[in-house]
Here is the input.
Amino acid sequence: MAPRHRLTIHSNDPDPRAAAIREGAAHLGMGDIGQVGIADIVFVDGDLSPDELDRLHGVLVDPLLQHGNWDPPKSSGIEITLQPGVTDSDAEAVHHTAMRLGLTIGAAATGTRIEFDPALEPARADEVVARLVANAIIERWADGHIEPVHPEGRDTPGAATTIAIRGADEAALQQVNADRALYLDPQELVAIRDHFESIERDPTDIELETLAQTWSEHCAHKTFRAAIHATGGPEGGEREIVPLMRQLRDCTETIDAEYVRSAFVGNAGVIEFSKGTTIALKAETHNHPSAVEPFGGANTGVGGVIRDVLGISHKPVAITDILCFGPADLPLDKLPDGSLHPLRIREGVIDGVADYGNKIGLPTVAGAILYDPAYTTNPLVFAGCIGTAPTRPLHEGPHPGDRIIVLGGATGRDGIRGATFSSATMDATTGEVAGASVQIGAPIVEKLLIDALVGAEDLYSAITDCGAGGLSSAVGEMAEGLGADVELDLVHRKYPGLQPWEVWLSEAQERMVIAVPARNVSAIVNRCARVGVDVAEIGVFTDDRVLTVRSGGEPVAQLDVGFLHDGRPQRQMHAEMPDPIRTERVSRTVADPAATILRLLAHPNIASKAGTIHRYDHEILGSTVVRPLIGAASDGPADGVVLAPPANTAGLAIGIGVNPWYGLHDPEAMAYAVVDEAIRNVVAVGADPDRVALLDNFSWGDPRRATTLGELTAAVEGCCAAAYVYDAPFVSGKDSLNNEYIGADGERHAVPPTLVITAVAHVPDADRCVTPDLVAAGNVLMLIGSTEIEFAGSHLDKVLGEPPGVGVAPAPDPDAPEHYRHLHAAMQAGLVKSCHDVSEGGFAVAIAEMCLAGRLGARIETLGHDDLAAALFSESIGRLIVEIEPRSVVAFRRIMADDCLEIGTVDDAGILWLPGVKPMLVADLADAFNTGAAT
Amino acid sequence: MSQVPAVIIAGPGTNRDHDVRHALELVGADARIVLASELIERPRLLGDYRLAVVAGGFSYADSLGAGRMLALDLMVGLGEELRSFVAAGRPVIGICNGFQVLTRARLLPGALGHNAQGRFDCRWVVLDAVERSACVWTKGIEDPIHCPIAHGEGRYVHPDPDSLAAAGQIALRYRSTNPNGSVADIAGVCDPSGVVLGMMPHPENHIVARQHPRHCRGGGGAAHLGLRLFENGVHHAKGL
Here is the structure.
């Protein structure tokens, strides 16, 4: 065996990673851990001469920044390296370096070394590493010098194992279900058993895994397709619910918007606002993976949704992210067993999103960050992507005879059973058993995939991404109605020793599958070779209605595609509908409104997210016209963002609506409210309310509990009702259910009902965009929409505490669509100088944000309600504050059909005056907002 | 007048190549994006161009240090051609990752380390073109240039910034806010001849007034466009 060399590289200047560890430990309540040192380690196996080592050193170490040493350090330290089999992209760069230098090397690996103060007890040092630095899911660490381990084993054409299920009773089936972590329903297991009894053989492991993946909640959306019997609710009685997915689709079909090109089919929705250019949009969740490995989970969540857009032949142009975390200041002793601390999750998730988006070269523009204790064990990560393409017909393939081609990364053991894992409930052991479910991202590989695929649309007949379920899902879905014949030996692998079912199910990232007519195969291969994308032709689509998978030529699966796709029995479910308070209006008493406004501005859900936003490249492509932070000091919160390429007049706006707290009180009203909020956000920046498309993303608890399903059903009904009223169709959606955690106490902890609505809308003139920052003293302020006493789920209750009778959550405002159309006309006429939606924290927070964004004051003389608390803090939907020049007031009122309330004027004294509230310095508002607890 | 042929050199992971092409096209260059691997295969291709850009992004994912792999590719495969390109006075600009590449390739002095605050940072900055600089890209620019930064390894390190200043090699400095801890507020440096400029900020993302974040409040405007650097570069190439 070749000798191993190790190069330890220290930074000349203080390494910022060391300070981050020290601060992180203090933040987690671990006290001052003293000085921390950090170094990178490069391991190279090979017979290398001193001169060759010098040349490697010359590339790997920049003497102005670093110093490196081939002798292992004598001081103590904890060293971390990746688990065998986890992709090490830095090691690939070591190979690249050796190639360029003409050196012959064997295996390479990289690692990190943490040097603690010798006075720190080893147990504490180990805890710091475990809590803050390394993750056992993908890494291992040791006190002293670590030795990387490389996967070993030989590729022998693996045989499939037969699983005996014929004649098995339900208990025996359940045992198979548990042994293989299939997460199938009892009736589904019976259907599978009956199917194999009818064809007189037992399934192979790969067949069973393929069925479990295809029928997983993640892939089959069995709750959204279930027959639901409902009881309870405001009307009482019993009723049959139209399957939830059907309701959403019916809604889109009834609205029948002329700009919808494709809804609810394929990887993403497609719309066409401007003739000649289509827009693809999609949002996904990546919750479970982010809970156990925040960086990798969020990283690959972004990668996955970008592939969804690529999988409908559009060029990705922007990313969105909505993140839900537990409180960042949660004491360590309150942290449930087996969970990572919310702070660690937050840092990892944000780094993961930033790493993928920044490296692939897409602006991460719109988003939200929500904090709630209920997200501690179940953080939520929603990632969205928008793409554009010249208008062209959708691909109609695959056709029998088309070749099955896998593009992109090689296949490893990463992400095995991710589709089934993400459909399961988590508990204290999840982190240990889910190791193989974690995927590792390589954004540059996906960047090259984009380079290879954009412009290649005429060469393939069908395309899909390799996401959850891997090749099983991608090829299985494409083979629906046809059949396919695949040889697993042709799939490129990261390392030897993989079982056939592992190759088939692996969720190794950055892969796309295309169906290519035989005549175009060489053109695809050449194109990929030019940009450096790996290509493997693994089989052919057939017309025998059988999905045949081979290993070494021998079939390891022969599944009837009809049974695979249509054999799953429809789930029969029971929903206990919620019966929310709808009539009782209860106001609040606020002793010190000024102090309350400052507390609201500093609340983590409302305070500035600048610390996160600046970690994302939101400028690349040069299309970002309205940024997430706006105003005189670029620190005010925007409502929506607007993208328009430098040479275009028209653009598109993206708005997000999400409010789980209303959902705790009234899921139906919540759903309506978040549709309204998403649309209001795009209207507020200048988008046309008559050209809006919506994405729905539901993250819910276990729907097999009747009350949870009842809340989900109510939410679907609420968002459909809103879509009809606003004439805004859903074009794509995704549900992530079972976001629950079973604590050591046996109690279930579910996420609050979290529906994220993304609105994408047409901006006719990107030069006429409007933002919330006040522009000029003397201008007139107007309030659009009506204020009611609606406090249930409000942020006022979050800072002052919830009273015993909470009253109603914000109810639908039937006048809102007309208000938005009028406001848009006024914006098109250039009459609106600034505009902000009223949301969390109510009117007082909205006007405060306008002041701080413009660094101007406001003198408010009239309020939207006689009840002071309601006027200031109620969160009634449908409301916007606008700034109008005095000379435009008459024209504005005419366009608004006089349905607006003049409330005051912009003032340059740097003070916000509100009736019944002490005057507040705008500088104090800005301080509260910018130094709040959020990131 | 014929257009200046310009090459934008892209490695695996370069991602602002299209933004730069757009900027160059606006100032009358005929800009092509060419992969470094293609140039290395046919080094003489470089001679077809009068201006070269090493664009921003994450070549090789920043593995083992930003810019190192692409710099190694270029030095091993194209070193001689690049040096004669520069010797002929043809302007070269390295932006962000391109700057990191050019320092590693020793076409520019100094090095770029991790931002002092330890994180990737994206925000708009204001740059002053240094008056007594040899740089052809910043020549005659008096008004400050506004444009965004987007980098994690942009802290400029040089053992003797005074000697750089004396040699006219400091081209751009951050005004008021130094976002990454760069020595002497240095945002951009040039080679002794002034034809090679490296800078961390992205002038290619401020080529029309609407891109300025405070455009609606009267911020930015023609005098502050990043496009002015490209005008200078193309103008210089035309004069060769």
